[in-house]
Each structure stands twice: as structure tokens, then as C-alpha cells.
């Protein structure tokens, strides 16, 4: 999996966490008011707002926030190796090194190449946040930003569990109410 794909997967996983919290908290006493305050907190935080916007950009607009820079020595024909197909073109980009077969046609495809050269791929974040929870960030590399966001999501889940797990359990254990008599399709619970 490429770094870009892993980052985009992370964005969707973060949203899945908040979605699951909202779903599970529905109907739990006090949850809605608590979560609304958390939404205000998240919306007012530069880092969390960045992740929200990055997901919207990726999922709804097909744009991403990562910038890649590849620095390598100039490859020799020997370092690249022979072309796997006639007419294939060798390319280097942010996803690595590839042979491009049938370039510019509907059949265009990439075949990974492992040249014998020294190279480094640098990843940065376009429009990276500089603060989180009112504190200046010392490092705004993608992995550090993801770790901070993940830590926030974990604390959000932990806080919800601490505050609402007993209330949710009570909600799950209460008798169902509704109209109709006991029979097919209904749940009749008695105290006897």
C-alpha cells in the first residue's frame, strides 16, 4: 500500500470512529449534548479541522494534502535494467519507480521497477496545521499529525465509554415499549 493510500485510509478511519460514536450514542441520556460540545471542540481545533477537511477533499473532490519529493541519483541504463515490454518508458514519481506500458492509451499500466540506485522519498503536508488543542506543534510531519489525531480519537472514545457505558447498558437492558400484543414479531418480556 502506498503512503498516500494509507493516509487516505486513515482519514476515513477517523471519520468512522466519530460516526460509530454518534450511532452508538443515539438515545443515550446526555450523549447528544456531550457530543455537540465535542463537535464544537473539534471544529475549533486546527489539527482536527485539517483532518476533517482533508477527508472531504480526498473523498468528495479527489484531492489530497500530501506532497512527495523524490531525490535520487541519475540512474544509468544498467541500474534501471531492461525494459519488460517493447516501448515501455521508465518513470520516477512520488509513488516510486515504474515502467509505463502502453503510455497514453486506455491500456496504460505501471509495472514497479526496483532500480539499483540510492534515493529518498520525502512526504510533507500541504497546508499543515501548526496548533492542536491550543498548543503549537513542534513537528507537522504526516506521521506525527496522524498520531495526534489518533490520540484524540482514542481519548474521545475513552471519555464516551467512561461517561456513557452504564447509561448505554441500561438502555440496552430496558424492556421494549410499543403498541400491539405479544405474538409474532413482538418482544414480550415479563417479570415472572
Report on this model:
The termini are far apart. Helix content is 46%, strand content 17%. With 192 residues, it is an alpha+beta fold. It has 5 helices and 7 strands; from the N terminus they run αααβαββββββα. It has 2 domains: 3-71 and 129-171, no CATH class; 74-117, no CATH class. The strands form 3 sheets. A 3-stranded antiparallel beta sheet has the order 2-3-4, with no helix packed on it. It has a two-stranded antiparallel sheet with strand order 1-5. It has a two-stranded antiparallel sheet with strand order 6-7.
Descriptive key words:
alpha+beta; two-stranded antiparallel sheet; single chain; 3-stranded antiparallel β-sheet; disordered C terminus; 192 residues; 5 helices; 2 domains; elongated
Number of strands: 7
Q: Within the largest sheet, what's the order of strands?
A: 2-3-4
How many domains comprise the coordinates? 2
Strand content: 15-25%
The helix/strand order is HHHEHEEEEEEH
Helix content: 40-55%
Total number of helices: 5
Distance between the termini: 57 Å
Shape: elongated
What class do helices, strands and sheet pairing give?
alpha+beta
Amino acid at each position: 500500500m502506498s503512503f498516500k493510500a494509507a493516509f487516505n485510509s486513515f482519514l476515513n478511519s477517523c471519520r468512522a470512529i466519530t460516526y460509530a460514536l454518534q450511532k452508538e450514542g443515539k438515545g443515550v441520556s446526555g450523549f447528544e449534548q456531550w457530543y455537540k460540545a465535542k463537535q464544537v471542540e473539534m471544529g475549533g481545533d486546527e489539527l482536527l479541522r485539517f483532518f476533517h477537511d482533508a477527508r472531504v477533499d480526498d473523498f468528495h473532490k479527489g484531492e489530497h494534502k500530501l506532497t512527495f519529493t523524490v531525490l535520487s541519483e541519475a540512474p544509468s541504463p544498467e541500474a534501471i535494467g531492461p525494459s519488460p515490454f517493447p516501448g515501455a518508458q521508465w518513470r520516477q514519481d512520488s509513488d516510486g519507480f515504474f515502467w509505463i506500458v502502453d503510455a497514453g492509451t486506455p491500456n496504460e499500466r505501471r509495472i514497479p521497477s526496483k532500480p539499483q540506485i540510492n534515493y529518498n522519498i520525502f512526504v510533507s503536508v500541504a497546508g499543515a496545521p501548526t496548533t492542536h488543542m491550543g498548543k503549537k506543534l513542534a513537528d507537522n510531519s504526516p506521521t506525527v499529525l496522524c498520531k495526534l489525531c489518533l490520540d484524540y480519537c482514542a481519548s474521545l472514545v475513552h471519555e464516551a465509554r467512561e461517561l456513557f457505558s452504564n447509561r448505554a447498558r441500561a438502555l440496552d437492558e430496558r424492556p421494549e415499549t410499543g403498541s400491539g400484543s405479544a405474538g409474532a414479531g413482538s418482544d414480550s418480556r415479563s417479570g415472572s
